[in-house]
Specification:
The protein is α/β, with parallel strands linked by helices. The chain has one domain: Spore Coat Polysaccharide Biosynthesis Protein SpsA, Chain A, CATH 3.90.550.10. The chain has helices at residues 31-40, 57-66, 79-87, 109-122, 171-177, 189-195, 215-228; strands at 2-8, 25-26, 29-30, 47-52, 70-74, 96-101, 124-130, 135-142, 147-155, 161-163, 167-170, 202-204. Strands 1, 4, 5, 6, 7, 10, 11 and 12 form an eight-stranded mixed β-sheet that branches. Strands 2-3 form a two-stranded antiparallel ribbon. Strands 8-9 form a two-stranded antiparallel ribbon. Strand 4, helix 2 and strand 5 (70-74) form a beta-alpha-beta unit. It is globular.
Length: 230
C-alpha cells in the first residue's frame, strides 16, 4: 500500500498575500486542489493525507467530497511537526510513503512512479535536478552585536543538486526517523531520514515540477495551466 502526505499548513509569507499560496486559485481551482488531483488521479496511491492549519480545514473537507481515501491532519509549528503529525494517521498497511509540497501542482504520474520504484529498491527516492547558475558559498562572521557577511567563495555547481518533492521512503523507517527531536537543520524529510542513519537515494527530478513560492512563480503557473487547457 502506498500513501502520500501533502503538506499544506504553511503560511506562504514570501508571496506577500493575505491567504496562504496553496489556496490561491488558478483556472477555478486552488493550487492545493490541482496538487491533490495529480496524486488522487494517478492510480498509484491508496490514501492521501492533507496537512492543514486549523483555519483551513474547510478547504480539506471540500477535497474529501471530490476524492476518496483522503484524510485531514492538523499541522504543527514547523514542517517537521506537520509531517510527524501526519505519520501518526497513515494506514498501518502502508509500505511506501511520499511527502509532497502542496505548492508543487505540476507533479507527474511518471515522477511519482519513478519515486516508488526507486524506493522499493533503495529504501528512499529524492528527485533532484542540476543547478543552472554558478553558485558561491557564503562565509559569515559573528561578533557580540551582529552576524554579517565576511566573504564568499566559488564552489563547483556540478557537486550540488536542487532537491524537489515528492520525497519517498519506506514508511516504517521514516516513522522511526521522526522519533528524532526537532533540529533547525531538518529542512526536509530527507534530512530527518538521514539523521537516523539511513541512506538517501537521488533520482532524476523534473525541471517543470516547480514550487510556487513567489509572485513570479505564480504567473508562470498561470501560463502553464492556461496552455494545458488550450
Amino acid at each position: 500500500m502506498n500513501s502520500v502526505i501533502i503538506v499544506a499548513a504553511g503560511e506562504g509569507k514570501r508571496m506577500g498575500l493575505p491567504i496562504p499560496k496553496q489556496f490561491l486559485e488558478i483556472n477555478d481551482k486552488t493550487i492545493l486542489e490541482h496538487t491533490v488531483a495529480a496524486f488522487a488521479n494517478s492510480g498509484l496511491l491508496d490514501e492521501v493525507i492533507i496537512v492543514l492549519s486549523k483555519g483551513y480545514f474547510v478547504e480539506g473537507e471540500k477535497l474529501q467530497a471530490n476524492h476518496t481515501n483522503i484524510k485531514l491532519c492538523l499541522g504543527g509549528k514547523e514542517r517537521y511537526h506537520s509531517v510527524k503529525n501526519a505519520l501518526q494517521i497513515v494506514h498501518q498497511n502502508t509500505e511506501l510513503i511520499l511527502v509532497h509540497d502542496a505548492v508543487r501542482p505540476f507533479i507527474t504520474k511518471e515522477l511519482i512512479q519513478d519515486c516508488l520504484l526507486k524506493t522499493k529498491e533503495k529504501g528512499s527516492a529524492i528527485p533532484a535536478i542540476p543547478l543552472k547558475d554558478s553558485i558561491r558559498k557564503i562565509q559569515w562572521n559573528t561578533n557580540d552585536k551582529e552576524v554579517y557577511l565576511e566573504n564568499s567563495i566559488s564552489v563547483e555547481r556540478a557537486d550540488y543538486r536542487s532537491v524537489q518533492t515528492p520525497q519517498t521512503f519506506n514508511y516504517k523507517k521514516l516513522l522511526k526517523a521522526y522519533n528524532e527531536p526537532y533540529r533547525k537543520s531538518f529542512t526536509d524529510d530527507a534530512s530527518v531520514y538521514e539523521a537516523n542513519g539511513e541512506t538517501i537515494a537521488l533520482i532524476k527530478g523534473d525541471p517543470l515540477n516547480i514550487k510556487i513560492t513567489t509572485p513570479e512563480d505564480l504567473e508562470i503557473a498561470k501560463i502553464r495551466f492556461a496552455n494545458s487547457n488550450a
